[in-house]
Specification:
By secondary structure, the protein is α+β, with helices and mostly antiparallel strands. The chain contains 15 helices and 19 strands. Helix 5 crosses helix 6 (163-185), helix 6 crosses helix 14 and helix 10 (329-339) packs across helix 11 (348-359). It is elongated and about 85 Å long.
Length: 496
């Protein structure tokens, strides 16, 4: 079936060549966006076309032929516009081109804009040019497919047949642009730091490893830019941020992709309370601008994101939902057994945090800053001077998702080196395998007190666009490679 469709469409390319036309034209200049043509249409009730001619181009996703006339729906980046084809309006060769068109073709149209008798804005074609022949047809039922994996694998099709998908990624771009503007206005400088690191650090995660042939050294795809950004704070930049990819060699789920986008920033002469205020102001405005206001629609629930957002202590929440406190070894063992959580090999604080993740995080629906984590699980955060076992750290949760993570940054080089060495000695697979002595050296030159923040862009966009999976907001999420038989099966399904 597919082979026959492919051959039929190739035959139409041959027919185009026989008409003396270029099969794959190089350009179609002076194109006007469809939304601008719609704005120039005659008012309702007038059917006389405009005197001005417009050139539009896009993908043909509907075609209705009626002998010597017909209509088609042309989609470009701004939306849809109807094209009217009439034999007596078109040069003979252009009418022949019209007859060779198929769904999915990229076409260029020149004509005047008017309205049909039913009032629909229409460009009445005076010229028709086939700009790119779609040898593979758009799947007729693609919009209704429940196989999300197929849509993620064929994102190039998903985008042009499901307009809401294109709108999601346009929204993502606008959110990132807004975040940049917000920070730029407040004196932050956007920078770029390495993605290839000689030491994996800046977060607790398993890295991807690669090898540089010339230098004959192993390198790691960055799991976080934190240690490089804080070097810049030492250097005097004072307010810096980076928006870029991080890589973590971990599981894949609706909330996790091995490569993901983070906004990470650092502000000198601030602490985590200052960063809470900045985060609340910045993200509440994201929801106001891009998600319709303070009532955030997420699946079948509506979340109130009006400020101020709740501040809750880590230990308070742990006691409330798990019935245990910090340093409660017996309570942790009992609760882990009750919840069937495997804590073998975990120290007390990591085991406690595993229970926190199972009992507390699922309850955090409304925006909540969870503050004051155990210092033992925060190796880069400054301790609370009144409670040395507590770190000045917060995580922001909305709809059970961790959206942001922040600290008052540790700037004591002696303390930092000791914590690094404890990490290395733990032999935890998510901890650095060696101490980053250059970072310690940087701190020894003096880093001002600072607050830092990391925001998961993908998860933020999930919330703002009411997307159920992180794959829905990443253009090309990582997917398992298919066998040739699986590829053939999906090809057949997509064509149905």
């Amino acid at each position: 079936m597919l082979d026959k469709i492919f051959q039929d469409r190739k035959d139409k390319l041959t027919r185009l060549r026989e008409l003396g036309l270029e099969e794959w034209p190089r350009r179609f200049p002076d194109v006007v966006a469809s939304e601008n043509v719609l704005a120039a249409a005659p008012p309702e009730g007038e059917t006389e076309p405009s005197s001005e001619s417009f050139r539009v181009a896009g993908r043909l996703l509907a075609l209705r032929r009626f002998g010597k006339a017909g209509f088609g729906d042309l989609w470009d980046r701004t939306g849809k516009i109807q094209i009217g084809f009439q034999k007596d309006r078109l040069p003979e060769v252009d009418f022949q081109v019209y007859k060779l068109l198929d769904l999915g073709d990229i076409v260029g149209i020149e004509g005047r804009v008017g309205r049909t008798r039913t009032g629909e804005v229409t460009i009445w074609a005076d010229r028709v040019e086939l700009l790119s022949k779609a040898l593979a047809p758009p799947p007729e039922k693609f919009h209704g497919l429940q196989d999300h994996e197929l849509r993620h694998r064929r994102r190039y099709v998903d985008l042009f047949v499901n307009r809401e998908v294109l709108d999601t990624f346009r929204c993502r771009s606008e959110i990132v642009r807004y975040l940049r503007g917000f920070l730029d206005e407040r004196g932050f400088l956007e920078v770029e730091t390495p993605m290839l690191h000689p030491i994996a650090g800046g977060a607790a995660a398993r890295p991807f490893t690669t090898h540089h042939n010339t230098l004959d050294m192993d390198l790691y795809l960055r799991i976080a830019p934190e240690l490089y950004l804080k070097r810049l704070i030492v250097g005097g930049l004072e307010r810096v941020y980076e928006i870029g990819r991080n890589f973590r060699n971990e599981g894949i789920s609706t909330r996790h992709n091995p490569e993901f986008t983070m906004l990470e920033l650092y502000q000198a002469y601030a602490d985590y309370q200052d960063i809470i205020a900045l985060t609340e102001e910045m993200l509440s405005e994201v929801f106001r601008r891009f998600a319709g206001g303070t009532a955030l629609k997420v699946g079948d629930r509506t979340i109130d994101v009006s400020t101020p957002w709740a501040r809750r202590g880590y230990e308070e929440l742990l006691q409330e939902h798990a019935g245990i406190g910090l340093n409660d070894s017996e309570g942790v063992q009992r609760k882990a057994a009750e919840l069937k959580i495997d804590i073998a090999g975990l120290d007390l604080h990591k085991a406690t945090n595993a229970i926190f993740e199972h009992t507390v995080e699922p309850t955090l629906i409304e925006p909540t800053f969870v503050i004051d984590y155990p210092k033992a699980i925060c190796p880069l955060a400054k301790a609370d001077p009144a409670r040395p076992e507590i770190a000045e750290r917060f995580e922001l949760f909305i709809n059970r998702l961790e959206i942001a993570n922040a600290f008052s940054e540790l700037n004591d080089p002696i303390d930092q080196e000791q914590r690094f060495r404890a990490q290395v000695d733990s032999r935890d697979e998510e901890a650095p395998a060696e101490v980053d002595l250059d970072y310690v050296r940087a701190l020894s030159h003096g880093m001002p007190p600072a607050g830092g923040l990391g925001i998961g862009i993908d998860r933020l966009v999930m919330l703002a666009t009411d997307s159920a999976s992180i794959r829905d907001v990443i253009l090309f999420p990582l997917l398992r490679r298919l066998s040739s038989d699986e590829e053939a099966s999906q090809e057949s399904e997509a064509a149905q």
